[in-house]
Amino acid sequence: MGIVRTTFVIDKAGKIAKVWPKVKVTGHAQEVLEFVKGLK
What is the DSSP string of the chain? Predict the structure, then answer.
């Protein structure tokens, strides 16, 4: 089966703002960073 990675972004209120299931490492950090920059 291998490794299954999932990323969660938690907002300031403590709620899950976004979930990325089964992510690939390449480019994922940049995608998450862009999403977090867009949070208000």
Answer: ------EEEE-TTS-EEEEE-S--STTHHHHHHHHHHH--
How many angstroms separate the most distant Cα atoms in the chain? Answer: 37
Return the pLDDT at 26.
Answer: 92
Reported confidence tier of residue 40, pLDDT bands at 50, 70, 90? confident
Report the candidate in 27, 33, 26, 4 with the shortest Cα–Cα distance to residue 18: 33
Kindly indicate the confidence band of residue 25, based on its pLDDT and cuts at 50, 70 and 90: confident
